[in-house]
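PROTEIN DESIGN WORKSHEET
SECTION A - STRUCTURE
LENGTH: 453
TOKENS:
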């Protein structure tokens, strides 16, 4: 009897084991067939959790000890608990990241927010431009920084500078009227030293080049150089009555002090730069217009030398990276604080990642603008920031390939202006701006695909 009973029990155990194993086998197979996760949604943490096959192995191992269902249930429960814990942790860390972002960056910027129109590449038709101005205003802009380059209707001996599609005087008046109607100030930009390809490429002006084979820079030792750029400025001023500011460019004078005459000149590069710029700055001051100039040629100048230009100009300090940690010389802001009363900053909303970029990495530019708010909040108290110009480069120079076009960058402009005006960017603000643009709430700001090298 004893033996018989043991035999019956054994048979029962073996039978139920076979049934259970069969069910496990079917379940594990059907679930992996019915629920194939696309690679992109496969949880990264899966290697930390018991996988289906590891559960099976453990189950088999535990068969000898009996209580198979108990063990499986416990394991399932443990798995669920582990997942719940991970989920909770993920939510907590997401919340703290958002809170941290808000705390560190919430710094509304009340100065000017200028939209830079780089018309030296794919200039839009005036009919398009005047239609988007009300949106610039709505998104938070207070003005335009207009770099006409060859799109300005230069006259008389400078008529040759006009591009075939340059704007007419009537079109520029229309731009000014629409800007005024939308409460947007205008600051024209005319290059006066480097980046003058649109002038120096013409045979009439080739004699003013610093380097015979390069068309970018003027020779500061040619007596016609300053009168030439002053004539360009005056023609632009004549079409823009009542200006408060005028931007004279002045960045990236790569070829400074390379021609035979300049090489023999005893003055160093900074001195030649000041020699060329000073009469231009004074000319504008004489017309009661405050000159603005890109700052990069002066970044390493000692304070004593910065003071040469201090009373004459409001520098515009530019930087377009998403992370500006260590970007400027360490003591630059202290020197600028002692040399200048007012400055401008320049961020970017397009055209600052690659010369051939065909896609606007919005998150990158939003970060850049937020980083500027961070810098501005830590500036020496003596330094007043008049405004931020959001640059939108169309090509890196006159001959370069086109980068992102203005129409494709309008969402980026809206998000960057929103970030500057509000002082932060989070999911809620992103949703509001996306909705205003007619984009889905889920619209992603951080698109890396076209941004990576
Ligand atoms: C050029 O000379 C001035 C003094 O006249 C000096 O302050 C400045 O540091 C010099 N710049 C360079 C680049 O050597």
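SECTION B - SEQUENCE
RESIDUE ASSIGNMENT:
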């Amino acid at each position: 009897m004893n033996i018989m009973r043991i035999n019956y029990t054994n048979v029962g155990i073996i039978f139920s084991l076979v049934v259970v194993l069969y069910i496990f086998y079917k379940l594990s197979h059907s679930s992996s067939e019915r629920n194939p996760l696309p690679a992109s949604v496969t949880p990264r943490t899966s290697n930390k959790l018991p996988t289906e096959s590891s559960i099976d192995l453990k189950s088999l191992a535990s068969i000898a000890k009996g209580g198979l269902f108990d063990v499986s249930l416990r394991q399932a429960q443990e798995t669920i608990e582990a997942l719940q814990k991970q989920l909770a942790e993920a939510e907590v860390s997401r919340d703290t990241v958002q809170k941290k972002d808000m705390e560190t960056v919430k710094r509304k910027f009340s100065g000017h927010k200028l939209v830079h129109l780089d018309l030296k590449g794919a200039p839009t038709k005036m009919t398009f431009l005047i239609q988007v101005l009300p949106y610039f205003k709505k998104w938070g802009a207070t003005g335009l920084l207009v770099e006409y380059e060859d799109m300005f209707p230069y006259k008389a001996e400078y008529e040759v500078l006009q591009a075939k599609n340059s704007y007419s005087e009537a079109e520029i008046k229309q731009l000014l009227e629409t800007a005024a109607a939308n409460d947007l100030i205008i600051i024209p930009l005319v290059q006066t030293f480097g980046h003058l390809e649109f002038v120096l490429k013409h045979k009439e002006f080739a004699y003013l080049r610093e380097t015979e084979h390069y068309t970018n820079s003027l020779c500061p030792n040619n007596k016609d150089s300053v009168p030439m750029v002053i004539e360009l400025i005056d023609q632009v001023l004549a079409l823009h009555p009542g200006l408060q500011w005028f931007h004279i460019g002045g960045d990236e004078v790569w070829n400074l002090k390379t021609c035979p005459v300049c090489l023999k000149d005893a003055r160093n590069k900074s001195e030649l730069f000041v020699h060329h710029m000073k009469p231009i700055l004074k000319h504008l001051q004489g017309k009661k217009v405050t000159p603005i100039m890109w700052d990069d040629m002066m970044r390493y100048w000692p304070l004593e030398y910065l003071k040469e230009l201090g009373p004459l100009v409001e520098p515009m300090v530019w930087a377009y990276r998403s992370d500006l940690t260590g970007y400027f010389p360490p003591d630059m802001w202290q020197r600028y604080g002692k040399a200048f009363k007012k400055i401008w900053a320049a961020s970017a909303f397009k055209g600052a990642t690659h010369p051939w970029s065909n896609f606007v990495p919005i998150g990158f530019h939003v970060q850049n603008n937020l980083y500027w708010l961070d810098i501005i909040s830590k500036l020496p108290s003596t330094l007043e920031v008049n405004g931020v110009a959001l640059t939108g480069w169309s090509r890196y120079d006159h001959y370069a390939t086109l980068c992102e076009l203005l129409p494709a960058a309008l969402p980026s402009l809206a998000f960057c202006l929103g970030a500057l005006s509000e002082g932060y960017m989070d999911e809620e603000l992103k949703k509001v701006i996306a909705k205003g643009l007619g984009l889905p709430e889920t619209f992603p700001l951080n698109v890396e695909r076209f941004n990576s090298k």
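SECTION C - NOTES
The two ends are 81 Å apart (CA to CA).
Confidence is low (pLDDT under 50) at residues 1-6, 29-66, 95-104.
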